[in-house]
Amino acid sequence: MTAVPGLPEQEEHLFNVLSSRRFLQMEGLGNEVPFFIYPYPAEAALQVDSAKKRVKNKLSHKGITVYEVNLYDLAVEMLEARGVWERLLRAEPETDKADFREMLQGMLDPQLHLAPAIRAKVESNDFDIFFLSGIGEVFPYIRSHNVLNNLQSVVIGKPMLMFFPGRYEQSETLGSALVLFGRLKDDQYYRAKNILEQEA
Fold first, then answer.
1. Lowest mean pLDDT segment, chosen from 63-77, 95-109, 117-131
2. Which of 3, 11, 85, 165 has the CA that lies 20 to 30 A from 46?
3. Where are any strands of DSSP class E within 7-84?
4. What whole-number distance in Å separates Cα of residue 92 and Cα of residue 85?
5. CA separation (Å) from 145 to 110, 124, 162, 188?
6. What are phi and psi of 169, to 5 degrees?
């Protein structure tokens, strides 16, 4: 496993920002939504996952509760609850890729299905920070900017951090864009802030 330059410093920065009073009380945001993105190279996914666990552990020692939703796990849970997961697994090898993607996109529509499922989880858990992960695993069935757009009315009053395997490009002229895996522009999303640029 190749070491990712700067990851230990990023982990320390994440902990310092997430545990700061300014972040937890969502100060200095104006009228912006308290959504933050942690972009990282897709090849560093395993190291980032380990770093995330350590950060959550250190935060819990400070009495700060993190609640995490992994989109892949949530998607499987939803499909199992509807009794279609096994059928999908059997159908996938014989189904045209575009048709299969369209079918899954309908079943996992962010507005109709994902956002209400996340709302139910958020409302039944007490936490200080919301983590959203599993973005790369659910592409192309679920697009991150669609999820973010639909969570603005769901995750309210708490800061949210999305772990994004790719780049978050911010430009004065072109706006901001999520570039999944560093290659696929996942459309414009301008409302989130890069957590690596936040002060503790």
1. 95-109
2. 85
3. 35-40, 66-70
4. 11
5. 10, 25, 11, 7
6. -90, 125
